[in-house]
Amino acid sequence: MHLQRVLKVDLNGKIAIARYGKIFRGDKAENAEKFNCTALILYSDPVDYALGTQVAVYPEDWWLPGTGVQRGTLYMSDGDPLTPYYPSTDSAYFLNESEDLGFPSIPVTPIGYDDAIKYLSKLDGPTVNSSWQGKLNITYRIGPGFVHPYTNSKMKVSVHTYNERKLIKNVIGYIRGEHEPDRYVILGNHRDAWIFGAVDPSSGTAVMLELSRAMGTLLKGGWQPRRSIIFCSWGAEEYGLVGSTEWGEDLNKILSSRAVAYLNVDIAVEGNASFTASVTPNLQSLLYEVTKKVENPNRDEYTNGRKTVFDTWMANIPSSYDPTIPHVRDLAYGSDYKVFLQILGVSSLDIGFTYNQNYKLSSYPTYHSVYETYDLVSRLIDREFKYHQALARVWGEIARTLADSVILKMDCVRYAEKLQRIFNDVQGTYRDIFSEQGITLEYLATAVEDFRKAANDLHDRVKMVDLKNPLEVRRVNDQLMNLEKAFIDPLGVSGKPNLRHVIFAPSQHHTYASSSFPGLTDALFDIENDPDQEARWQQVRKEVSIVTFTIQSAARTLRNVNNIGGL
User: Fold this and answer.
1) How far lies 567's CA from each of 241, 558, 564, in Å?
2) Residue 177, C-beta contacts closer than 8 angstroms, at least 6 positions apart
3) Tens digit of each residue's pLDDT (9 = 90 or more) over 395-431
4) CA-CA distances (angstroms) from residue 227 to 191, 224, 405, 463, 471?
5) Taking the model in full, what pTM does it have?
6) What are the backbone dihedrals phi and psi of residue 555, each rounded to the nearest 5 degrees, phi first?
7) In 87-161, which residue ranges form alpha helices assigned H by DSSP?
8) What is the pLDDT of residues 347-364, one digit of tens each?
C-alpha cells in the first residue's frame, strides 16, 4: 500500500522481496498477490535475527546464521482446507482442490540473509526509509530493477511444492473427574515441527509429557480431581492449526457446553529472561496466584529478592496500567487455543518463558529453521532444564486448581476492568472523529458499566454460596464458566465465520496479532482513504452497535437467575 500510494511504485508483474517480521507471513503473501506481484521472496534480516555490532551466531550463540531459513505456513485459515468450518470426517463434504482454499496463487519462497544480500545489494531505485533499513552492509533500495552493470538482469522464482492428502492424528489422554466428570480442564500442545523443532514445539511437548507423568503418579497415590483433565497432543499445527481445529469442530456441541478452560503451551522455553503469558482476563488472577507459588528457575534472581516466577516476570515485563502486576498479552490466533476461544467460546491461556523483551524481536532468532536443535536448547537456552521444570509446575498448578477448586477460580471483575480500558482507548482515540460523524458511544459506555456492576454482584454472591449444596455450586460455576461464550457472535467478526469473539480476535491486516473490538478496529482501518466514505462509516456504526449488544448480553449472563432482563 505504501509503495503504491506514496512512492508510486508499480508492483504489477514484479517479484517482491520482503523481510520477515511485523505481520504474519501469510498476510505478506496475500498483499503481494493483491497488488499483482508475480512472486514473493521472504528473508530474515540480521537486524531482526542477529542483533548487535559484532554478533556471534549459532552454534557460538543463539543468533540466526546467514544460512538460516524460516519455514512456515502461508495458509490464511485453519483446519482441513477441504472442509472449512466442519470436521474432516469420513462423512464430510470435501471441496474440490481446484477451488480457492486460502493458499496464495503466486510462488513464495523463504531464503536466508546470505542469499538475500546477493539480490538486495543490486536493487535500483530510491533508498528505503529508516524503518525499512536492515543491518546488511548494503544500501537498501526499493527497486524496481537493478543497478549497473546488472541493468538488464532478470530474476526467476521457481517453487517446487505440491499438495498432498495425509492422515493426521491427535493423541488424547483423559483423567476422569470424581464429582464433575462432565466438566473438562483441557491442556494442549502440538507435536509436529518444521525441521527439528527443539523449541517449537518440543520444549512444550516435553513439559506436557512430564506433567502427565506427574499427574499419573498422583493418581496412583489416590488423588482424583474434582473435574476431568484432558491432555491433547495436536497433529499438523504448523500447517494451519489442523489437529486442534478439527477436534474442536468435531466435538463442538460437547466442548462448548462442558469445557471449563483451555490451557495451551506451544513453546515452553524460547528464552530465559522471564515468564510470559497471553490470557483471557478472567484467568489473569489465577495466573498471578500460581506464579507467586512457583520457585524462580534463575537462582541468581534470589540476590535481587525475586524468589518466584511472578517476581522476575513483574520486574522484566511490568503492566502499563498497574504497577503491582506484570503485563499479559491478549490472545490472538497463532496457536491451538484459536478454536477454543474463537469458535467454542472457552476461556484460554498460552504460557511460556521468553527472551529479553528489550531485543524487540518478532520471534526467537532460530525460529522454524534447521538450527532449532536440542543443542541450542540444552547448551544456550536452558542448560539444566530448570525453566522447563518451572513451566511444568505453573501449567500443572493452574490445571489442578481449575480441576479441584469447588468454586472455579475465574475472575469476571478482571474482565470488566479490561473492557473499561478498551473503551477508554477507543473513546480517547476516536471521540472527535466520531462526534463529527454523529456517532455516540453513550450506549457502549452504559454496557461496559452494566457489565462491571454485574461482575461485582456475581462475585459478591459467590462469597455467599453454600459449598455443600451441589446445585448452588453448579449454578454459579456455570455462570463463571460460560461468560466467554457470551462474547461469541455466530455470524463472525468482520465477515469471517472462523473468527467469532467480539472482544478479542486477530486483526484483519495481521493474522498473528490480537485486536480489541476487532470488528470496530477493522472498520476504522485506513478509513480516511476509502473513496466510499458513507459505506465505511455505516459499517463503523454497525460495529459499535454489535459491540454494545454483545457486552450488554454478557452482563446479563452474570446477573442473578431471577433477573434476566430483556425487552
Assistant:
1) 41, 18, 10
2) 183, 224, 225, 226, 227, 228, 229, 403
3) 999 999 999 999 999 999 999 999 999 999 999 999 9
4) 26, 9, 9, 21, 15
5) 0.95
6) -60, -40
7) 113-120
8) 999 999 999 998 888 899
